[in-house]
TrEMBL record:
Top-level division of the source organism's lineage: Eukaryota
Name of the gene: ttc38
Protein family membership: Belongs to the TTC38 family.
Lineage: Eukaryota, Metazoa, Chordata, Craniata, Vertebrata
Residue ranges of coiled coil: none
Native source organism of the sequence: Dicentrarchus labrax
Record-linked SUPFAM superfamilies: TPR-like (SSF48452)
Protein name: Tetratricopeptide repeat protein 38
């Protein structure tokens, strides 16, 4: 593999982001890992993330920022908990020990501190530290990306937008990776409902870097939130060649493509994407993003009345080993969809009880702090719905409507829970709930006019209650 084109010690110094190592190779590998993270892509010519992470440890085993980026990326993937995974916990401790035994820069010290907070599940403290770095070093894209991910897990939509807005003027077109900031900014804009501006900024990003999968992803969201289904289908298909090379995000972009088909009621096309892309990829990668997408897609199809056959059981093989992780509530709720869909009641119970236990003494872990008030009742609502206790599901979910944002993810991803509430209200025997269901559909129609899915649900509500 060749890292010739990446930045060495001198190049990082020249950018005002010096790295505490004397190894040029370690600096270049750090840049190579960072570049793949920003592009959402395993670059096979470099040996992908794994190859570069092994190589950086060999180039300089004591390079603190090498440990920060490799351990930080594993933590940000949320596929493993330091509570249960001793190897990951000790990788965090090793990074802290190395930092304490060396004379590193204040910026690098802050990076270590942020990673440590994140490893304890304290995502907002971690974000505060990354923001401190960005005040003095607005071109530190590792701090920017890590903060962006943490805000995503917190459902911190304004912060996701403003974090990028604050640093944009400091980035000049000649700087490596500068074009990718457009996609990051666009995502923050669309999650705060500035859809037209989000689309414009993402398109500017794609004009600079046509293969920027995160900009593609932002546009996919805009068309999803505005229910501009045909535009979305045309856009995803027209650019598929460009974005599918970003293997880390490709499955998620295919998921967005499938959502348009579900919206249109073209379930066979959606299932084809599920089988050929989403499930196949999540089975190969075990990535949490790919996995939760698979969970959510089956759940949405089932609510639409589609029989997903034995797909729940196959997906359970991937989600079941994560039952006790409890890294994020968002992940937990998606795993629960699968154990309920696969009628694996022991696993469902175990997940709920584990969460209830952690909610008692959450410590610094924000997800566990939120579990008692939001996570547990949402899990219970899903279980009630699954057992046909629709009125109980409504009573649990409805009061949480405006707090669900706190479980993280995007508006598009959390919409599965809005749909669940509508279905529960429509199916409830309680007349007040049935009216509530119609109210929620009217509200949905105001936000996303011309949505075929909303129209179908309206028809169903009328047929059920007349």
């Amino acid at each position: 593999m060749s890292t010739a084109s990446f930045r060495d010690c001198q190049a990082w110094r020249a950018e005002g982001l010096p790295l505490s190592t004397t190894s040029n190779e370690a600096c270049k590998l750090y840049d190579a890992i960072l570049t793949q993270y920003v592009k959402w892509r395993n670059d096979e010519t470099l040996g992908g993330f794994e190859g570069c992470i092994s190589a950086i440890k060999a180039a300089d085993p004591d390079f603190v920022m090498g440990h920060v980026i490799s351990t930080g990326l594993e933590l940000a993937g949320t596929a493993s908990s330091t509570r249960l995974n001793e190897r990951l916990a000790s990788a965090v401790r090793r990074t802290v020990d190395l930092a304490n035994s060396q004379d590193i820069s204040p910026r690098e010290r802050l990076h270590v501190k942020a990673m440590e907070h994140f490893s304890h599940g304290n995502f907002s403290k971690a974000s505060d530290v990354w923001e401190d770095i960005l005040v003095d070093h607005p071109t530190d894209i590792l701090a920017l990306k890590f903060a962006h991910d943490a805000y995503f897990y917190l459902g911190a939509q304004n912060q996701m937008r403003d974090s990028v807005a604050r640093v944009l003027p400091h980035w000049k077109p000649h700087m490596p990776l500068s074009g990718y900031l457009k996609g990051l900014y666009s995502f923050g804009l669309l999650e705060t409902r500035f859809y037209d501006q989000a689309e414009k900024v993402a398109m500017e990003g794609l004009a600079l870097t046509p293969d920027d999968a995160w900009s593609v992803h932002a546009v996919a969201h805009v068309y999803e939130m505005k229910a501009e289904v045909d535009k979305g289908l045309k856009f995803m298909e027209g650019r598929e060649k460009d974005w599918q090379v970003s293997d880390v995000l490709a499955s998620h972009n295919y998921w967005h493509w499938a959502l348009y088909f579900i919206e249109k009621g073209q379930y066979e096309s959606a299932l084809q994407i599920y089988d050929c892309q989403v499930f196949r990829r999540c089975k190969n990668t075990g990535s949490m993003l790919d996995t939760v997408d698979a969970c959510s897609m089956l759940c949405r199809l089932e609510m639409e009345g589609v029989c997903v056959k034995d797909r729940w059981r196959e997906l359970l093989q991937i989600t079941q080993p994560h039952t006790d992780d409890h890294v994020t509530l968002f992940n937990d709720l998606h795993f629960l969809m699968v154990s309920l869909g696969a009628k694996e009641s022991g696993t469902s119970r175990r997940l709920l009880e584990g969460l209830q236990e952690l909610a008692k003494e959450p410590g610094d872990n924000q997800q566990h702090q939120l579990a008692g008030t939001v996570g547990v009742p949402m899990c219970q609502a899903m279980m009630e719905y699954n057992q046909g206790s629709y009125d109980r599901a409504v009573e649990l979910l409805h009061p949480l409507r405006y707090r669900m944002v706190d479980i993280g993810g995007s508006d598009a991803q959390r919409d599965v829970f809005n749909q669940l509430l509508i279905h529960a209200a429509m199916k409830s025997e309680n007349k007040h709930h049935q009216k509530l269901g119609r109210c929620l559909l009217v509200e949905r129609n105001a936000m996303r006019p011309d949505s075929p899915l909303t129209d179908r649900l309206m028809q169903r509500a009328l047929a059920l209650h007349n």
